[in-house]
Amino acid sequence: MKPTLKPGIRFEHKFVVPPSKTVPALYPEAPEFVAMPEVFATGFLVGFLEWACIKAVNPHLDWPREQTVGTHIDVSHEAATPPGLEVTATVELVEVDGRRLVFAVAAHDGVDTISRGRHERFVIDKARFDAKVGTKRKAS
Known about the structure:
This protein is an alpha+beta fold and 140 residues long. The chain contains four helices and five strands; from the N terminus they run E-H-H-H-E-E-E-E-H. The active site is at 42, 50, 77.
């Protein structure tokens, strides 16, 4: 981690929602999901917020050796967003506690605030992380 990794880092990330990021596309093998409205899925919204947080802190890490993984998410999903609208995520790093990072996150679709909340990530050493996952895979 670089000394520049400290609270106050802000980032804005934009993304046009394609049909592949709607509720029916989240689990196409689940008929319950396929029958649902074609709007930005909460699962993909969470991933979009994570993406913005990753982009915010990567310049402050020894990327790609150091990376971050999501460890907690507490966000609302307040409004439906159809495909074709551009969503904007605004994230701010509000706390650095060792390798634990806490972000305030929000998203807007140009019409409504669609999400707000908090997200936590943890800085990892990718090689060590991959080795632990490999050990777990072998044990199963």
